[in-house]
Design brief:
287 residues; Glycerol-3-phosphate (1)-acyltransferase; alpha/beta; seven-stranded mixed beta sheet; disordered N terminus
C-alpha cells in the first residue's frame, strides 16, 4: 500500500496543497465523538435538515423519483451494513439540500440523534473549514474536511472507510468539486479506494439531480432562490459483486483496482444521468 502523506497542518509538504488553517484537531473529534459532540450534532443536523426541507420541498417545485430506495435502507438495512451514496455536484447547497427530501419520519429525534442514520459527508477544507467557528459548525453537521489535490491517501478518505466499517452511511461527490460547467468529469479515485478497502461491500445508491444550481447559483449574488423546478432521481443499488470477485480472483495493483471500481461507478452514474435528464425534460414540458 502506498504510504500516506505527512500531517496536513498548514504547509505544503511533498507537493501537497497549502492548508492555511490547521484541520488536524478535527479528525480525532470525528473519530471518537464525545457526549457534547452528539448533543451539538443533534441540534445542527436537526435545524439544517428542517431548513433544507423548507427550501427544497416547500419553497421550490421538486419532483422526486424512487427515494423510497434510500429511505428503506435507512430504516431497515441490517445492522452493520455500510451504506454509500454517490451523486453529481452542481451547487454548494447539494448537501444538505438533497436530504431535505427525506420524509419527516426520518427527522424524528430518535433518528437525528443516531449517528448510524444521518450521513457522513466530505466537505472542502478551503470552503467549510476556514476557521474555528466554521469548522465546529460543519464538524457537528457530520462533515469531514477533505483536501482537494491531496490524493486518495489522506485523513478524510481514511475516516470515510472507518465509518463504513462501523456500518454507517457515507455520502460522496465523486466529481470532487462543484461541477459548474456540467461537463463529464472523470470521477476521483477516492470513491474507488473507499469501496475497495471497506471489508463489507457497501450498499451503493447513485443519485442524480438537476436544477440545484438555480436554487443556489454558483455566481454572485449568492442567495437562495424560490420557485425553481428540480428533479431528483435515486437509482437502484449498484451491484459490484462481480467486479469485486474478479479483483479477488485476478489480483491487480491497488491503483488499478481503484480505477476499475471508480469506472464502474461512473458508468452507472452516466446511465442514471441520461434517465434523469429525460425525466426533467418531461417535467419542464408538462408544466
Amino acid at each position: 500500500m502506498n504510504s500516506k502523506p505527512p500531517s496536513l497542518n498548514g504547509a505544503a509538504v511533498g507537493g501537497q496543497p497549502l492548508i492555511p488553517y490547521n484541520i488536524d484537531w478535527i479528525f480525532p473529534k470525528l473519530r471518537r465523538p464525545s457526549r457534547l459532540w452528539h448533543i451539538a450534532s443533534t441540534g445542527v443536523i436537526g435545524l439544517v435538515g428542517f431548513f433544507s426541507k423548507i427550501v427544497i420541498v416547500w419553497l421550490n417545485k421538486t419532483r422526486v423519483h424512487n427515494i423510497e430506495v434510500l429511505e428503506n435502507l435507512l430504516e431497515n438495512r441490517p445492522k452493520g451494513t455500510p451504506l454509500l451514496t454517490v451523486s453529481n455536484h452542481h451547487s454548494c447547497f447539494d448537501d444538505p439540500g438533497m436530504w431535505g427530501l427525506l420524509k419527516l419520519r426520518l427527522l424524528k429525534l430518535r433518528n437525528v440523534c443516531n449517528h448510524n442514520v444521518i450521513r457522513w459527508s466530505m466537505a472542502a477544507h478551503d470552503i467549510c473549514f476556514t476557521n474555528k467557528y466554521h469548522s465546529l459548525f460543519f464538524m457537528y453537521g457530520k462533515c469531514i474536511p477533505v483536501v482537494r489535490g491531496a490524493g486518495v491517501y489522506q485523513p478524510a478518505i481514511d475516516l470515510c472507510i472507518e465509518k463504513l466499517k462501523l456500518g454507517h452511511w457515507v455520502h460522496v461527490f465523486p466529481e470532487g468539486k462543484v461541477n459548474m460547467t456540467k461537463e463529464d468529469l472523470r470521477f476521483k479515485w477516492g470513491v474507488g479506494r473507499i469501496i475497495y478497502e471497506t471489508p463489507i461491500l457497501p450498499v451503493i445508491i447513485p443519485i442524480w439531480h438537476i436544477g440545484m444550481e438555480t436554487v443556489l447559483p454558483n455566481e454572485p449574488p449568492y442567495y437562495l432562490r424560490l420557485g425553481k423546478k428540480l428533479t431528483y432521481n435515486f437509482g437502484k443499488p449498484i451491484d459490484l459483486n462481480a467486479v469485486m470477485e474478479r479483483l479477488r480472483t485476478n489480483p491487480v495493483s491497488e491503483e488499478e483496482a481503484r480505477k476499475i471500481i471508480t469506472d464502474k461507478i461512473q458508468e452507472e452514474m452516466m446511465i442514471l444521468k441520461e434517465e434523469t435528464e429525460r425525466l426533467h425534460f418531461d417535467y419542464i414540458k408538462s408544466s
